Amino acid sequence: MTRPDSKSVEAVTAVLQSIGEAQPQPPADLWSRIEAAHGARSRRRRLRRLTAGGMFCVILAGAVALRGWHSATPEIDWQARAQALELQLLAIEHDNRIAAATPAAFDANPATSELAEIDRRLQAAYEHKIYTNQLVPLWKRRSELLDALIAARREGLTLTRI
Q: What global pTM score does this model have?
């Protein structure tokens, strides 16, 4: 094993020192510029988050307001209304001692014949598993007819089609 020459170690050390001295020293304000850039980046990030959060809140508030405005008019359950009107009609018929099992039993009346047609269409829709699109107008029309029949029964009128 040979021992390195002390002159060669001194020469290497001198070369390394010259390389270290040759490197430029960083400017005195380098760290303050780095901190300022980092702070600016953090502020931009925070501003973007705040803006995105604000946009989300505005959109959410708009959706809630739109939903509230849209549902301000109550949705009518036409099926339940028609069933309640049918019970009223049956009660009126019972009070007047008219023998009828359903309002559609009076085939001579145009309103009841239309009611029977709507009942047939509702039954067909349920058998074919057709839902809201076609059922709501049928239940609404059935409810309107039952309402007209109740008014006619209370007045003792006979409905005719012109």
A: 0.47
